[in-house]
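User: Continuing from earlier, I have the next pair ready.

Assistant: Great, send them over.

User: Here they are, in order.

Assistant: Folding the first of the pair now:
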Amino acid sequence: MTTATVVGSGPNGLAAALTLAEAGVQVHVVEAADTLGGGVRSAELTLPGLVHDECSGFHPLAVGTAFARAFDLAGAGLTWRWAPVEFSHPLDGGTGAALRRSVEVTAAGLGTDGTSWQRMFGPLTDRFDTVVEEFVQPMLHVPRHPFHLARFGAYAALPARTLARRWEHPEARALFAGAAAHAFRPLGTPFSSAVGVALATSAHAYGWPVAEGGSAAIARAVVALARQRGVTFETGRRVDHLADLDTDLVLLDTAPRAAADIIGDRLPAGVARAYRRYRHGPGAFKVDYAVEGGVPWAHGESRQAGTVHVGGSFEEVAAAERQVTRGRMPERPFVLVGQQGVADPGRTRDGVHPVYTYAHVPAGFTGDATTAITAQLERFAPGFRERVLATHVRSTARIAADNANFVGGDILTGANDPLQVVFRPRLAADPYATGVPGVFLCSAATPPGAGAHGMCGWNAARAALAHLTR
């Protein structure tokens, strides 16, 4: 029987292990931490009984991919929950905008910009199943749906600042800015629209669900299915050298530099250079709050949102992102807020809500962004401070220490600059192959990139299985 070792148990490592096992491979997963899950762990971080997601907290694209369709995760205990509003963006004075599942309802809330929003996102949403099929695989492929992909690509290639000019009013522009800012890139650079267009369209097509009971439920479901297929797991063991592994296949759910260290001298020189030059992006500074009664947003629809993007106008968000990528901490950073309890009321305890936040900060930021994050929430939710019962802080250093893939606090496992948006981790027909027979990279440093969708692992496992037939 063919054997495989998967190094790392994040969502991509787990997806790779399950995909290989389904094909009849004997798989062993090795994890350096004491618990499985990588970026989909959950814990009681603030108060007893109040479950917070440690990294990934809401899951665009998790329900519409080939991996999600291939396995019965619901049968293994995973239940998805959706908030009434997928994401929102409050502005000063109690105004703001909200994206709901329906394109038409969202457009109706955007006033005179609604027609333009519907003309753009209506056709993209109608065809998103075929578009997703194209962009969750390596870019160097013959598209099955070239016209659908071309329409998506025409928007994605633009700087977000340019695309935002199609809307006249601050509400629609800010709504798009919040989605685009997930790329951790200056909004005036080419391809800075790509992540925003994909995430906003996925919100209309699939929603931004949360996992009932915490993101750790995703890992538990995949692990349960994997165990049924004979996969074995080992925690608390760090793999430092490829020679430590004696299997036919090795899949590395690691950042490229770590992969280069593990593979060592067997790695071809050109691949080694590419992996060591791989660029990481800005960091995240995370604060979890226990909030009595939830966040008192002045913008009413934000109280119904699973995710709230906090940063003010498009121009403010763009200025903050530009500062962060230049290594400067903004006074008013872009803050992403997760209100998982809105979608999953079982997360609350006696009226106390777990509130998840992180600010975009410079890579390796050594300061404390807690005050800045709290001030941003207080700005758009007056009275927030008085409701906070407890906090839990994770700096960029702590994030990197807890997950070695998040270099400098980079929770995306790689910068989304124009080249790496399209070609990651290097320019290659098979971005999962390392150049060493039987050894593959399956982390979020490979296409399609960050998220708890598992598609990097799915794609890498399929590449590994194809290698066996050559």
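And the other member of the pair:
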Amino acid sequence: MSTLSSTDAAAFGKVGVLFGGRSAERDISIMSGTGVLNALKSHGIDAHPFDPGTQSLAELEAARFDRVFIALHGRYGEDGSLQGALELLGIAYTGSGVMASSIAMDKITTKKIWLAQGLPTPRYATIEPGVTDLDKVASELGLPLIVKPPLEGSTIGITKVTKAEDLKAAVDVATGFDKVVLAEEFVTGRELTVTVLGQGENARALPIVEIVAPEGNYDYNNKYFTDDTKYHCPATLDAAITAEIERIAVEAYNAIGCEGWARVDVLLRESDNRPFLLEVNTSPGMTGHSLVPMAARAIGMSYEDLCVEILRSARLKIGQARG
């Protein structure tokens, strides 16, 4: 870990680390935020915890933060709502702005933009419970297929459907989180993820991480609470395939206007080594099992230095900083 001088650390001003929140990913956010807070403090930065799940926007304004590191996951933190409040309060923040955050949070809207840009993503259908013909969805997408709530993360509410008669039950699970449901073609292949840092022409991909979960099931438990899942970084891939995955990841990131940092999830189809984009996480996990720090380590960047680099990119996207 490189060490900031006291002058450089002071230049960040008073920093808030926002974590916790009210989403289904609250517990993971607390783990991420605690790690980020400790990392920033280790550099001498004047960092303080703030939980929007238990503290009000009035308290956020009263804290007089010069900038904040968003370590919130899911609704009310990763979906543009908090970003809008920070713009109104004039507090610089990490990650993407209001529009990019809200688009990335909605997997259906994200897919529409990617397809319009000619980027590869699995075929899909939007399901309105009680309205959509489920047999038709199963017939058009084929089986197995994946059913998921389009506004959730951390594999919450996701079901793999192998029989048409199980589709309704999977939809019922997903509607416990969202009113509209995403059904997606199941792509058999390798699970990969790409961290992207920066903005626009300066956006760059970090080394690709491959995820090898027990029985191919990268669920909530295998993602955060087990050591059985294996990770390979950099992923063992042909140079041309690596370059193609990094290219489409950066293009996917830029297509929805991401900036600062994000993680792009990709499937590499087994039959022909063709990559397919799944989703973008604009406030990725920063826990001990998280993939962004893993990718950073592969280029010699410590967890602490990664947190500082992300914090350094904090800014307002619409207005001007307070004062």
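Worth noting for the second one:
Residues 218-225 have pLDDT under 50 and may be disordered. The chain has three domains: 6-95, 103-120+188-306, 124-185.
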